[in-house]
Design a protein that fits this description.
The structure is a single chain. The chain is an alpha+beta fold. The chain has three domains: about 1-150 and about 415-430, Triger factor/SurA peptide-binding fold (Orthogonal Bundle), CATH 1.10.4030; about 175-275, Chitinase A, domain 3; about 280-390, Chitinase A, domain 3 (Roll). The protein is about 50% helix and about 20% strand. The chain contains 15 helices and twelve strands. The protein has helices at about 5-20, 40-55, 65-90, 95-110, 115-120, 125-150, 155-170, 190-210, 215-220, 245, 300-315, 320-330, 335, 350-360, 390-420, and strands spanning about 1-5, 30-35, 35-40, 175-185, 230-235, 255-265, 265-275, 280-295, 340-345, 370, 375-390, 425. The strands form three sheets. A four-stranded antiparallel sheet has the order 1-3-2-12, sandwiched between helices. The chain has a four-stranded antiparallel sheet with strand order 5-4-7-6, covered by helices on one side. The two termini are about 20 Å apart. The relative contact order is 0.10.
């Protein structure tokens, strides 16, 4: 699609030049004007070749040429409107991104780039022509995405509702191997007694999350019906469980600790030992602490590194305490007040160099000084644990589904509004085109 003024000028010059040749040459005609741009007959012909190639590759029959050209014209009008929006936003697709998109397309068609070029040539499509059409497609898509995203609003309640529906659907036929601890609450217990039992239940949960053996705690403290079996209820589907259990189990994975939660007889703690028939998501979290020294005009890289080397030596020799050094020396105010403790985090939240250290450093070891964009560090890994993230994964999937639904709806509405507000005209001579 070209600017119509420059295109018409170009055609006029072509017309003047054509008079000097013995044989007349066919001019590229304007078939539609879209705001300040035009769609040429060559654009229609090029798109027609691409559609025929794609249909042949999928063994897809095509409608008559009349119907097909109408559909192509509508697509070109919509594409032109989106490209005009992209021009307003300053969107440009560089050659690197374009090459990546073409390579991905070739891979999806199980072809190499030379094979793709051969297929294009067999349908009369030049490779430069194809590249520019791909560039237009990517540019239009990015403009559409930017505009439509602004129109989408997804409420947390929508995500929660859909996530619950997905979980219920996925849990049909799912079996859970569970264990249970019950702390009894006597009828007529006072507020102080209720608080005491609740505190005891929470203390047991903290012990379990720190690695305590569930069965041992059940033998020692549980007043539930399976106490003498270490709290083990074995394999059950949700519909076979006591309702109070089923209401608490959602999409937790292996090893999940649930509770404490209260019923009429007391406080309960559940452990999901194993799950069958449910796809679970588990991540590794690392509890680490660090000391950061930032370089400055008066503190060079070498000096910062030497400071940390001396601090590391003193800590390892038992002369100083890691937490004390962090509080007095670390330039990270958020962790320094906690003795350098960064808490439980997935390594992905850190910059690459720091992520590599906390992933690979043995527990209890203090690293050699290393540099990141933040400065120089030493880090110690205190502990690692696997954490179930199935519930979060289900919510993420629910969000993506909702976004996709709303994006498609809003994209259609936006395109209709764009077309309704555009100046679109078909020159009279275009009606005579073949």
């Amino acid at each position: 699609m070209k600017n119509w003024k420059s295109s018409l000028l170009g055609m006029a010059l072509l017309g003047l030049s054509a008079g000097s040749f013995a044989a007349p040459q066919e001019l590229d005609r304007v078939v539609t004007i879209v705001n300040n741009n035009v769609i040429l007959q060559s654009d229609v012909n090029s798109m027609l070749k691409t559609v025929r190639m794609n249909a042949a590759g999928q063994n897809q029959p095509l409608p008559s040429d009349t119907v097909l050209k109408d559909q192509i014209m509508e697509k070109l009008i919509i594409e032109t409107l989106q490209l005009q929006q992209a021009d307003q936003f300053g969107i440009r697709i560089d050659d690197t991104r374009l090459d990546q998109a073409i390579a991905q397309l070739a891979a999806e068609r199980q072809m190499s780039i030379p094979q793709l070029q051969q297929e294009l040539a067999s349908f009369g499509i030049s490779y430069p022509e194809f590249r520019e059409q791909m560039r237009r497609d990517l540019t239009a898509s990015e403009a559409r995405t930017i505009q439509v995203r602004r129109r989408i609003n997804i409420l947390p309640q929508e995500v929660d509702t859909l996530a619950e529906q997905l979980s219920q659907h996925e849990q049909q036929g799912t079996r859970y191997n569970i264990s249970h601890i019950q702390l009894r609450l006597e009828e007529g217990a006072s507020a102080a007694e209720r608080d005491q039992v609740a505190k005891a239940a929470q203390d047991l949960v903290n012990q379990l999350k720190s690695g305590a053996d569930f069965a041992n705690l059940a033998y020692s403290y549980s007043k539930g019906p399976k106490a003498l079996q270490g709290g083990a209820w074995g394999w059950m589907r949700k519909e076979e469980m006591p309702t109070i259990f089923a209401d608490q189990i959602d999409s937790q994975g292996n090893g999940a600790i649930i509770g404490p939660f209260r019923s009429g007889v007391g406080y309960h703690i559940l452990k999901v030992n194993q799950v069958e028939g449910l796809e679970t998501v588990s991540v590794t979290e690392v509890n680490a602490r660090h000391i950061l020294v930032k370089t400055s005009v008066i503190l060079s890289d070498d000096a910062a590194k030497k400071q940390l080397m001396e601090a590391r030596r003193a800590i390892m020799a038992g002369e100083r305490n890691f937490a004390d050094v962090a509080q007095s020396m670390s330039a990270d105010p958020g962790s320094a007040v906690n003795g350098g403790d960064l808490g439980w985090q997935t390594p992905d939240v850190y910059v690459p160099e720091f992520k590599d250290k906390v992933e690979n450093l043995p527990k209890g070891n203090i690293s050699e000084p290393f540099k990141t964009v933040h400065g120089w560090h030493i880090v110690e890994v205190l502990d690692r644990r696997n954490v179930d993230r199935t519930d979060a994964a289900v919510k993420n999937r629910a969000y993506r589904i909702l976004f996709s639904r709303k994006f498609n709806e809003e994209a259609q509405a936006w395109l209709q509004e764009l077309r309704a507000g555009a100046f679109i005209e078909k020159p009279e001579y275009a009606n005579d085109q073949g």
